[in-house]
Predict the 3D structure of the following.
Amino acid sequence: MSVAHAAPRTARERARVEITGEILSTARQHLARDGAAALSLRAIARDLGMVSSAVYRYVPNRDALLTMLIIDAYETIGSTAERAAANCDRSDYLGRFLSCCRGVRDWALANPHEYALIYGSPVPGYAAPAETIAPAARVPIVLLSILADQTADGSALPAALLDPGVEQSIAPLREFAGGQVSGDLLLRGLASWATLLGTVSLELFGHLQNVVVEAPAERAAFFDHQMRQVAIGLGLVGS
């Protein structure tokens, strides 16, 4: 039986992929050095030895460049979290949760400027378009899948009754979750997401100085302790 293969890229397509990659690589260097608000296609073109008009053939404006960088960051941290969780047995909910959290932290420490771009202060004058939504959801989906599996096998914590106003407030989240998880557990999951990002951000942005010992082993131990406390609230410990 014959197997269909994708047609090989043309020389022009290969050149476009290569040059776009070079533009993004240089943009990351500028992001680290100058910050997102100062990104300049002209400066990137100068570093690449290209005229600015040539760069605009690949990236039409600064906002498009920011979108490309944001999507790339979300996709990368998302795949990191997915791989980390997949290394554990599917029934090991605590292991999946901790592995995902550690993956997020490890990626953030290795890519601090990209982390700041997607989870830090908004870039003045920039509004993220709709195509960033799906990549941004990859890490939350990893966490949500754990809660859904808990619910499916009956090991989830008994759901507490919610105030009607609170229940209504998370209607978009319930729709995103597809009705698989109770509102109470969704709120606990949202709190776990906030604690994960908050704990990583405190470390990454220097807010743990003189609070937690800076040595890597102690920082990792502190992070694991915080995430285990969150896991208790999710009913993952002992599952």
